[in-house]
Structure formats: C-alpha cells, structure tokens
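Here is the promised in-class demo. Please do not try to memorize the tokens; focus on the logic of going from shape to residues.
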C-alpha cells in the first residue's frame, strides 16, 4: 500500500480525523493542542488522530494529498476542513459543532 493510499484509508475509515504533531493526550505543538481542545469543546468523542511525528512518510506526503501545507489537518467525512485557524473560526461560528454531530454516531 502506498503512503497516499494509507492516508486515504485513514481519512475514509474514521468520521473525524486529525493529522497532528503528537497525540491528543500529548500534543507536540501549540496549533495541534489548540485543535484538539477545540474539537473536544465542539463535542468530538470519536476523534481519531494520526501523529505525523511518528510517521515521517505521512508527514511528507499529506500536504500533497490534501493540498494543504501545514499541520494539524482536520478531515470530517473524508473532506479536508483545514488547519487550526479554520477549525477555530468554525468553532466560534457554531458550525464545527454541527459538523461534528453530523459526523459522529449518535
């Protein structure tokens, strides 16, 4: 399986996926930490994370897959939502909570 196929499988296998530096319990950068906090505040209980620091091949190829240069990267229902700033803006508007509740099994 190629790295791009591996990324595709991660994105398609989980309703909410965050590619980040570190883990949800131990984020390794401020932007990743902020994204996890925002997702939890928005009600994400089924948050699947991928630590790009442990997977250098994913870290190198994800920007090509998503056409997004930075981390973290949030995908909901297989669609790139964006990074920390966009996640924050969607949270402020209430849109992120709606997207999360639609993505997760009730």
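The designed amino acids, position by position:
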């Amino acid at each position: 399986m190629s790295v791009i196929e591996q990324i595709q499988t991660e994105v398609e296998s989980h309703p909410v996926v965050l590619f980040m530096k570190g883990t949800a319990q131990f984020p390794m950068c401020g932007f990743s930490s902020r994204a996890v906090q925002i997702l939890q505040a928005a009600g994400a209980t089924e948050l699947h994370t991928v630590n790009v620091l442990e997977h250098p091949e994913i870290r190198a190829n994800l920007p090509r897959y998503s056409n997004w240069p930075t981390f973290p990267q949030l995908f909901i229902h297989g669609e790139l939502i964006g990074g920390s700033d966009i996640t924050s803006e969607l949270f402020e508007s209430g849109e992120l909570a709606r997207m999360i509740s639609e993505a997760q099994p009730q």
